[in-house]
Amino acid sequence: MLTFQKINSEKDFSAVNRSQFVDFLHLHLDKFGDAPQAIQKCIDYAFSIESGKGGFCMIAYLNNQIVGGLIMNQTGMEEFIPQNILVYVAVDASHRGKGIGRQLIDHSVAECNGNIALHVEYDNPAKKLYERLGFTSKYAEMRLNR
């Protein structure tokens, strides 16, 4: 049976600890992910109690084994920038194509107030799922790396 756990703070980790969650995301994000240190910083931001910060993690379990994970950060903005950004979402490679990603995102969207943005690379197969869920491409992201 697929179950979901919302993690709002460090103390909410139970079946897996923070390090195991980070390792899961890093492994299953594969080439679309970031270094474990970046994922750790994203969780720090989600758990922050500073004004304009916050968010949560969501974990999907199948028979008490982690099969999916997500981190949602609040932006502290509204109107011109969505209030939330879905930073990381990953499903265990051996469980993809079974609707777990969709359910994980649906459960997380239900926990958010306001609009949600996400960044996805054009060649990421998950892009089709995001489009089916109603995400649209309003802007092309451009970066100046310095």
The overall pLDDT average reads 92
* Sheet with most strands: strand arrangement: 1-2-3-4-5
Helix content: 25-40%
Structural class: alpha+beta
Give the overall silhouette. globular
Number of domains: 1
Q: Give the number of DSSP strands.
A: 5
Unreliably modeled segments: none
**CATH class division:** Alpha Beta
What does this structure look like?
- The protein is of the alpha+beta class.
- The chain has a single domain, classed as Aminopeptidase (3-Layer(aba) Sandwich).
- It is built from 4 helices and 5 strands.
- The chain has helices at 18-29, 36-47, 100-110, 127-132, and strands at 2-7, 55-62, 65-74, 84-91, 116-118.
- A 5-stranded mixed β-sheet has the order 1-2-3-4-5, with helices on both faces.
- Helix 3 links the parallel strand 4 (84-91) and strand 5 (116-118).
- The longest helix is centred in the N-terminal third of the chain and has 12 residues, at 18-29.
- The termini are far apart.
